[in-house]
Write a structure and sequence with these properties.
Blueprint: H1 10-13, H2 26-36, H3 38-55, H4 57-60, H5 92-127, H6 129-143, H7 147-158, H8 162-188, H9 192-199, H10 204-240, H11 252-259, H12 268-294
Helix pairs in contact: 2-12, 3-5, 3-12, 5-6, 5-8, 5-10, 6-8, 7-8, 8-10, 10-11, 10-12, 11-12
Amino acid sequence: MSQIVTRPKTEEILPEIGAVKKPNSYWSLVWGRLKKNKGALVGATILLFFIITALLAPVLAPFPIEEMRMENRFIPPSSEHWLGTDEFGRDILSRMMHGGRVSLMMGLIAVSIAGIVGVILGVISGYYRRLDIYIMQCMDILLAFPSLLLAIAIIAVLGVGLTNAMIAVAISVIPSYVRVVRGTVLSIREKEYIEAVKALGVSDLKIIGKHILPNVMSPVIVLSSLQFGTSILAAAALSFLGLGAQPPIPEWGAMAYVGKSFLLSAWWMTLFPGLAIMLVVLGFNLLGDGLRDALDPRLK
């Protein structure tokens, strides 16, 4: 007597479709690595504190930044004025909150200008080899000067002011972007899939937009996070030298510059703006190191 063999139902073989685990995307893996990096979390926390404080400065500041009370001149840190007062009786905490908006804006604009120009020049230099020598020679000339000295020279041409200081810092940072992007493009343009796309007759503009730029973004993000702190420090240095933000604009570098004249009698006027600059630069460096490790393609 023949035995009837019954096939198991599909439901008994395959698990539920919803139970199938989908592979994690690239950015979810990056986020997972970043969350495990304690240094990056500390840096992000520091930056988040200063960013929120700067954005909410009009609400959180206990005193108007331009309110002068000569009877309150040079009051040390106290319960009423947490960070003391300056030579005009203005509350330093309030001015530092508003000064954070200026300092962070200077870094953001400088890095944005340098990033856009640097990526464009780097892609052109790496993809079109006939233009490479001309672009890189210009970058080598800029790299021959220390960044701060180059920024001072640019301000000497453009003039003193907040806007010119941001432009000067941006120009001094552009060579870093060009070198990083150029090196990445040089390695990508030799890949087999780029040669195949060229053989199909795809235009250079589409190749750059669909295949080159997406692969360039990871090193650019890491470089931007590191250059953000460097740009803020350079902008503050220019303001400290009297070449950037001018009084009465509340900017950390300018506040430290004014406070140096009263360093012995009112040390808090220089100490607290200097600490703010140091913490912001430290936060960006910690976050940049974490992003570099999280975006490293060699990690799995």
